TrEMBL record:
One of its GO terms (molecular function) is symporter activity. Its main location: membrane. Belongs to the sodium:solute symporter (SSF) (TC 2.A.21) family. Keywords: Cell membrane, Ion transport, Membrane, Sodium, Sodium transport, Transmembrane, Transmembrane helix, Transport. CDD domains: SLC5sbd_u1. GO terms for biological process: sodium ion transport. Gene3D superfamilies: Sodium/glucose cotransporter. It holds the Pfam family SSF. The keyword Transport applies. It is found in: Cell membrane. It is a multi-pass membrane protein. This is Na+:solute symporter.
């Protein structure tokens, strides 16, 4: 296979993305601007970024494997994300924004106490590094096998590249590249799908060649109980994962936070159908894959139907989507370490310059940890086993208590630690000890139900017990008193200079998105001349992307900076 064009496409897009990150090197003036976009990020940017943060090459590898083996149930499972986002938009995202914290860890400290925050920071950091490291592995595997490169150097190289622009540019660098990655990935899949159907003889040829139960909503080990538990899990995950909370707190109001979640829900209603069909179609072409080889189904259909150039585009989309997911996690883990550990515990009087240095350094530190984890994934049984197991073990115990605390005035820090500790212990017992000691292993559905359901039952039991005794947590009373003063201090701390800089940063970010989309459209148009098939649809998608570039550009023109406030240095002198 001729890989020259594919390699060139990957290198050109990668260089462009790294350049975008460097453009934002000077926009991070302080923690609020670096990690939260000045809390004025446009909601549609936050929603698209949230969507890409949830996405990765692991989606193609893990869910693609399920789609190949079991069919439509892979789409059913991903629709649980849509339901979780709808519930989040209705009830949870506005609450997070109204809480007024920069990070979820900051809210946990203020509402549940310092001890709970320390425990949660340790667990969250460990889980994030493991999960995001595990999704770096499949994209390295995809790129290395497609371009005939060694796996280990490929993993290290891709990991270092992903860390670079996050450490330099902060949240806006992550979000701008998220949008670019969303467009590239969507373009690649819209080109792949018709070519895949054509290869199998159209939709009729596809449906006639797959098993009779291939389009069942439920299939195999993915039962109704598993899907129901996954709905609850995704309410907790989308509503409470610290990575996603950052998207709700970085917009300007609770109403905008709600829109972020609703946009995510809409995208996850449509996208699974489009993205899961290619590996399902490959089942009709080659039904013989077994074991971990099913994780390669997506790559195999890409290599089969995509000509040079377009295969590089697809690999770029997969790689960028993983980059989006991993970089968002890096940004949040770094935010938690800098804001809640270094500033909160180690050096409360640190200057903005010191904090920015710690923020960028910690991004590199945790990013290298992710690379190490990625290199260990093959020994852990593959990406599906790693991601689903970590999620079932840690999701409920870690995410449910802080969400409960958003609404409850009775939950205490001590009760939170008990719920988390019991949940993690039980989940780890059934996952690691029971199969070895008792020769008993839970099904995937039971594992998920217990993992999510037990913490919620414990929280409900405590809430009912505390209510029966009319108890109100001391931590809640302290939180309410401190919250009032915090809002007063925050309102007084916002200077005119800072407000101007936030507007400038946001306008700059929107314009960079517009220019990035123009660049992507030009690249796609050029590929339409180089490719041996799919030229027409590639050119059409190029036109759609070019038209879409006007949306962020027009939005940037609506970001008005008063003419009398254009010179920040004059403001400083007059105050």
């Amino acid at each position: 296979m001729n890989t020259t064009i594919d390699t060139a496409v990957i290198l050109v897009f990668s260089a462009f993305v790294l350049g975008i990150g460097m453009l934002f090197a000077r926009t991070g003036r302080n923690l609020k601007s670096f990690f939260a976009g000045g809390e004025a990020v446009p909601w549609f940017i936050g929603g698209l970024s949230l969507f890409m943060s949830f996405f990765s090459a692991g989606t193609f590898v893990a869910w693609g494997s399920i789609a190949y083996k079991h069919g439509w149930v892979a789409i059913t499972i991903q629709w649980t994300m849509c339901i979780g986002a709808l519930i989040t938009g209705l009830y949870l995202a506005p609450r997070w924004k109204a809480a007024g914290a920069l990070t979820a860890a900051e809210f946990i400290r203020e509402r549940l106490g310092l001890t709970v925050q320390k425990v949660y920071i340790f667990i969250f950091t460990l889980v994030s590094v493991f999960i995001k490291g595990s999704v770096l592995y499949p994209v390295a595997k995809l790129v290395s096998s497609s371009l005939n490169l060694p796996l280990v150097p490929c993993t290290i190289g891709l990991g270092i590249f992903m860390i670079a622009y996050t450490a330099v540019g902060g949240l806006w660098a992550v979000m701008v590249t998220d949008i670019l990655q969303f467009v590239v990935l969507s373009a690649a899949v819209f080109i792949l799908l018709p070519l895949s159907l054509d290869k199998v003889g159209g939709f009729a040829g596809f449906t006639n060649a797959v098993p009779d139960d291939f389009f069942n909503l439920l299939n195999g080990e993915y039962t109704f109980g598993f899907v129901a538990a996954f709905v609850i899990y995704h309410i907790c995950y989308i509503g409470g994962n610290w990575t996603f909370v950052q998207r709700y707190t970085s917009v300007d109001s609770p109403k905008s936070a709600r829109k972020v979640a609703f946009l995510f829900a809409g995208l996850y209603l449509v996208s699974p159908v489009i993205w899961m069909l290619p590996p399902m179609i490959y089942k009709a072409i080659n039904p013989s894959l077994t074991g971990l080889d099913t994780e390669n189904a997506y790559l195999m259909i890409c290599k089969l139907v995509l000509p040079p150039g377009l295969l590089g585009l697809m690999l770029t989309g997969m790689y960028f989507s993983t980059s989006a997911s991993a970089n968002t996690a890096l940004n949040v883990v770094s935010a938690v370490f800098t804001n809640d550990i270094y500033k909160g515990l180690i050096n409360p009087k640190a200057s903005d310059k010191q904090l920015m240095r710690v923020a960028r350094g910690s991004s590199w530190f945790f990013g290298i940890g992710m690379i190490i984890i990625a290199l260990m994934v093959p020994a852990a049984g593959g990406i599906v086993e790693v991601v689903l197991s970590i999620s079932s073990i840690s999701g409920g115990p870690l995410l449910a208590p802080p969400l409960w605390a958003l609404f409850s005035k009775r939950l205490t820090g001590k009760a939170t630690l008990w719920v988390t500790g019991i949940g993690l212990t039980v989940n780890l017992f059934f996952k690691a000890v029971s199969p070895w000691l008792l020769d008993f292993k839970l099904t995937r559905g039971a594992e998920t139900i217990i993992g999510v359901g037990l913490p919620l039952l414990l929280l409900l039991a405590y809430e009912l017990w505390a209510r029966s005794r009319e108890k109100v947590a001391d931590e809640y009373l302290t939180y309410r008193a401190a919250d009032k003063q915090k809002r007063i201090d925050a309102a007084e701390a916002v200077s005119e200079e800072e407000a101007i800089e936030v507007k400038k940063q946001n306008r700059f970010g929107l314009r960079v998105i517009g220019v990035s989309l123009v660049f992507t459209a030009v690249m796609l148009f050029g590929l339409s001349f180089l490719t041996t098939q799919g030229a027409g649809i590639t050119a059409v998608i190029s036109g759609v992307v070019l038209a879409g570039s006007f949306i962020p550009w027009l939005a940037s023109r609506r970001v008005q900076i008063p003419s009398g406030l254009q010179q920040p240095e004059k403001i400083i002198k007059t105050h």
